Amino acid sequence: MLRENPPPRQKSWVGPTYRVTIIMLVIGQIQVSVAMEITPLKEFLADRYYLSLVQFVVSFLSIQLYGFFYHIIVKKPMWVRLLAGLWTYEVNTMSIMKPAKRAPYISLILSIILTFLMMIISVIYGNSAIKHKKGLFTTRHKVILWSERIFVLTCFGIIVCAEMKRVIIEFPTLLVYTILSSVFVMVFAASMRKPNFYRQESTGDYILIGQLYYLNFFALYMGYVWTTASFIELMGWRADIHDIFVYLFYRKNIE
User: Fold this and answer.
1) How far apart are the C-alpha atoms of 239 and 223, rounded to whole Å?
2) Residue 240 region by backbone torsions, left for phi larger than 0, else alpha for psi between -120 and 50, else beta
């Protein structure tokens, strides 16, 4: 008897998904750093708090519509796909940025390091979970649903915390949002390695998943930014890069 040929192995889209996520995350982080330096923009948004809420609503609707109509969008010409993706990306990035308030440079630097460290941990955890078939797995539908919910929840939390006058309340609130995002990126990492998670018949499905994963990593990044900033403010520390550099490397000479 002839042996049956084994079924062809499905191509893994995990690597391309991470590439999409990393590219979007780096661009988003650059935009945050630039936006915080534009004083007229900060003053304009600080005086018009309602605009942050409008951005939040537009962001929420954009995520829902993009995910719902993605199977139609991928069949459209390249310029339509590019325009839809760019609009959704920029709206979501701007909605959670909170440029009206300035974060210390040390918070931005620490947050970049912590975010990519968490990404490395998620890769290790995802590979380990699928290897041992034990971990925080969930279905594709729930990943997409909770990806949107976690982002929207974090976005709304950051907007609300921007108006808080008591840092003792702001810090624990932001810490909770950051922990939620940290846990979910691990769940996402494990789940997208499950068999049949990606729709092989859908062109560019990994782009949709990469964009959703970006939302959670960007929410995590902004959570780190404002949690560390509020912690520094709560402790009453001076967070000037020059002062820290002098303290670490020139303190003995000064003494």
Assistant:
1) 18
2) beta
For residue 220, give Cα distances in angstroms to 17, 45, 49, 189: 17, 23, 23, 14
DSSP symbols for 165-227 = S-HHHHHHHHHHHHHHHHHHHHHHHHHTTSTT-S-TTSTTHHHHHHHHHHHHHHHHHHHHHHH
Q: Can you read off the two tokens belonging to residue 15?
A: 């690597």
The token pair at 134 is 């034990």
Amino acid at 152: V
Residue 190 half-sphere exposure, CB side, CA atoms within 13 Å?
18
Dihedral Cα 190, 197, 155, 219, nearest 10 deg: 40
Phi-psi region of 12 (alpha: psi -120 to 50; beta: other; left: phi over 0): beta
pLDDT tens for residues 108-118? 889 999 999 99
Can you give the pTM of this predicted structure? Answer: 0.83
pLDDT band, very low/low/confident/very high, at 239 (cuts 50, 70, 90): low
Compute φ and ψ for 13, nearest 5 degrees.
-105, 10
The letter for the amino acid at 48 is R
